[in-house]
Amino acid sequence: MKTAPLILQHSFRTIAPLPLLFFTTAITLISCTSTHPIKQAGMHYFTFQGEEYRIRTIVSSIEGESRNELIGRTFLAIDLNQDCRIDRIQLGDVDHSRAQEIYEYCIDSLIKDKKLKLIKRQENTYHIRDVFFDYEVKSYTSADSNNFNEFCIFDKRTPSNQVRHIYHDQHSDGKLDKLISGTISLQDAQIQYTRLINKGLKSGNLFQHSHQILVRKQ
Q1: How many CB atoms lie within 10 A of CB 49?
Q2: How far is CA 72 from the centre of its chain?
């Protein structure tokens, strides 16, 4: 399921599955020489339910290094591909759904302030559809160079497919390991994930490598 991504004019954001970036007015140029990768970082500050938070956006010319970081007083959460979905809690013990709630509040505030504009970026995504749901898998490489897949189910019976169920295949081996958000059980989601994998392998949109199943770059 493809939706046009968004980028902030003064801070950052995107909507699934193409990334969103937050550019603040105070951009820090980390490297800009012709012999080094280009990396930029921007920071956006906001308050949610009386607590102060920051979103730090990193934009890099190196594939896989761009990300958004949600920083709270006691935790650090990461949006690995800048698509408005928290992918992992890097530090602290905040609940994943709570971090997502805080993150979405900031993004919604930026939309209301009209600080977003469209951008485009390719990413490793494959999706299929049926009557009531869209199914999507994305392949990621984490900071420690390990691959994992994120599987999402979007309910088309809700406005703008807003209800989504998110799962992680932590080893990219075709087996879902963790329910991130949503109400569809891991067992029921596995049935649809297996169906998507079989279709993707048959069509060539997915491929197997070293016992892993990954999305082929488009």
Answers
A1: 8
A2: 19
